[in-house]
What we know:
Layout: E1 3-5, E2 8-9, H1 28-36, E3 39-43, E4 49-53, H2 56-64, E5 68-69, H3 82-87, H4 102-111, H5 116-140, E6 144-145, H6 146-151, H7 153-163, H8 170-181, H9 187-210, H10 216-222, H11 228-259, H12 261-269, H13 274-285, E7 292-296, E8 300-302, E9 305-307, E10 312-315, H14 317-320, H15 355-372, E11 377-378, E12 400-402
Helix pairs in contact: 5-7, 5-15, 7-11, 8-9, 9-10, 9-11, 11-13, 11-15, 13-15
Amino acid sequence: MTTVANGEADSALAVPADRGTCPFAPPPAYEQAHRAGPINRVSLWDGSPCWLLTGHRQARFVLGDRRFSADARVPGFPFLSPGRRELLDRTTPTFIRLDDPEHSRQRRLLTGDFIIKRVEAMRPQIQQIVDEALDRMVAHGGPADLVREYALPVPSLVICLLLGVPYADHGFFQAQSQTLLSLNSSLAEVDAAQHALNSYLVELAGRKQREPDESVLGRLVAKGEVTLEEAAAMGVLLLVAGHETTANMTALGTLALLQNPEQAERLRADPSLIKGAVEELLRYLTIVHLGIPRVALEDVDLDGTLIRAGDGVLCMASTANWDEEVFTGGDRLDVTRDARRHLAFGFGIHQCLGQPLARAELQIALQTLLERLPELRLAVPFEDLRYRSDMLVYGVHELPVTW
């Protein structure tokens, strides 16, 4: 694999690149490339060229500029695996992979379900879900896998509650999610998982169309502005993204605090820091670690580099969130830092719709864990943990803890 930066090729840079010794840090190859310059030319797995942006200002520029498309159907769009590209013709696109006006039309149908006021009203329910999950974990006794017993059940229950999906089926959709998010899944495996989830949600949406309720899916089909297939596709997106991202941030955020005990103690001593601490953890960890893809719709000059129409671009939020020009000492976790300019939720019109809900869940889950289990610690050596480097959402596979 090669990259062209400042006219020179560098065969050491791969997309995606390998992690280094610190599991929280961006891949060393990206950091090295960034020091040489924030705009690099790379080749993807299929040999197609792509621009890799590692700087905060450059990534934010592209994500906020409508001359760069999020539509995966536009020629030149950068795919990170053959399964992701082949799936394109087999699925109904949702708003995260559409441009305006269709992007805004679909997104507007869901905006009211994720506004801050509605999420704030859900805090008592989220707190109850968190308390009950922690009660069960403590009752079982340590050591326990924090991922399976706490980090995953909490957002799964919340998104099921919102969507109107029976939580009894959570094992089914979690298994399909794992297949869809793995870079190693074959086309047949991805196709089967996507078909299974779509069929499940088309059937559920059809039931809710006949018997309306106040769930997100129920209200979506009741409006009559989308087909059952479109409603199911949006349901798949919300179901997968709604629990995978928050679950992995909860587990990885806990691990980061365990490895930085002085930061955890600051949060215990001053719970009012939790909102800023969550922003800092989002910045520091960046679980959407493989880049945010875009494709240029016209020629654009970016800092003297000509990005031509049809060129794919990967905005590396992980390195952007450690960019020293914006976050001094960005390689350190500091829960008192003002990290609000991070790109963990993206930027521009496509930034994450569910970010108010993710923030609330993370704030409640992490603060409750710190308060109720002050002796929480790893039950295995740090070096023995396994990370989700081969998944679209980064995290830790298991997190054995005791208290």
